[in-house]
Amino acid sequence: MEKIKNIFVNLNKIDLKIMKYGIIFSLIISIIGTFILTYNLIFIHTILLYKIGLSIVKLSFYFTVEFIVCGIVVDKILFSNV
Fold first, then answer.
1. Residues 6+ apart with CB under 8 A from 82
2. The pTM is what?
3. Residues with Cβ < 8 Å from 26, sequence gap 6 or more?
4. Element (H, E) at 5
5. pLDDT of 82 higher than 70
C-alpha cells in the first residue's frame, strides 16, 4: 500500500494536472450517461436508450482508468530518461 501511495505522491505536477482534468472529463461523461439512464427509467423505458446510457457510463470508467494509468506511465518514462 505504501508503494502505491509513493507512486501518486511522487508524480510530476504536469502529470497530476493532466490526470485531474482527465478524471473531471470522465466524471462529466459519467453524469451525462447517468442522466440518460435516469430519463430512460422515469419516462421512456426503451432498451436502446438503456444500452446507450450504460455504454456511456462504462466508457467514462474506461477513460478514468486510462488517464490514471497513462499519467503514471508517462511519469515513469520521463524520469527513467533523466
1. none
2. 0.86
3. 60, 61, 63, 64, 67
4. helix 2-9
5. no
C-alpha cell at 75: 511519469
- For cell 473531471, the residue is 24
* DSSP codes of every residue in 11-77: --HHHHHHHHHHHHHHHHHHHHHHHHHHHIIIII--HHHHHHHHHHHHHHHHHHHHHHHHHHHHHHH
Cβ burial of 77 (10 Å; 0-12, 13-18, 19+) is exposed
In the predicted model, is pLDDT for residue 29 greater than 90?
yes
What pLDDT is recorded for position 59? 97
> Within 13 Å of residue 71, how many CA atoms lie on the same side as its CB?
23
